User: Fold 1,4-dihydroxy-2-naphthoate polyprenyltransferase from Listeria newyorkensis.
Amino acid sequence: MSIPAFLKLVEIQTKIASVFPFIIGTLFAVYQYDLFNWENTLIFFGSMLIFDLTTTAINNYMDYRKATNNHDYDYRTTSNVIGQERISEKTVIITIFVMFLIATGLGVWLVVETDLLVLLVGFVCFCIGILYTFGPVPLSRMPLGEIFSGVTMGFGIVFLAIYVNAYDAGIANLIWSGEWVTVKVNIIEVIRIAVVSLPCIFTIANIMLANNICDLEEDIRNHRYTLPYYISKKYAVILFNALYYASFAAIIVSVIIGFLSPIMLVTLLAIIPVFKNLQKFNAEQIKAKTFVISIKNFVVMNSAIVVCLAASLIFKYI
Assistant:
């Protein structure tokens, strides 16, 4: 398998959806807890990214296997071509298993370097990632996909990026002693992380929502009944808009209650390009033309958050 074919199989262009929560979580760990562990951060980044590649590859492979219209998918020797190269099912399956084993190995290493809570949270995210694409009724084929993708990546990655740096800062602990397993959670700190991660949750959920809106008719033909099918395309588009405005509202609330620096209010300038992009999406929902708007808005909003978080750090230590 060539590199271009592999990158297409794992949809490398979509990995930005996991990189931004990682950066935001890492910056917030330094801002809020004054802690940064470069070794744990690198291990987590590798495990997170490779697992993301794995779930995408599984998703594409399972979509092909379940599709009634084989021409929509191109991961078998007997049908279509990826990057001018034919890829056999055997090659795809081996690639998936190798990536899975590497991601698991890095995850175990990270647990050794931190504590068992990383294992618990990582296991939950792992199960959701697998069930998202695998099984008789994957989450991606249900009206729950937006919720699970948004929370798992938007909150899960942010939380773990913070925790691997600040696992001994009193956020939470999982202690296994003899026959007892004790979980201790600092509710305020978890709420703080949850509120700060809301823009990530909403903008990631919107990537999937935009995809499902644009693919509604095709998904129905392939017996894939996603959220827009149940609430109608009209209300799905309304929800798509509302989640962006809720992201800005979450930033304002975070500043008001002291979870974030007032510098973060500068991110509100991103409303201008986001609003312009929404007008284009509201006018037409065509995969080839307007799906990319969800990616653009995700990048605009989260880039603004990253820049302002970095600025908050600078001003904090001046």
The chain is about 70% helix and 5% strand.
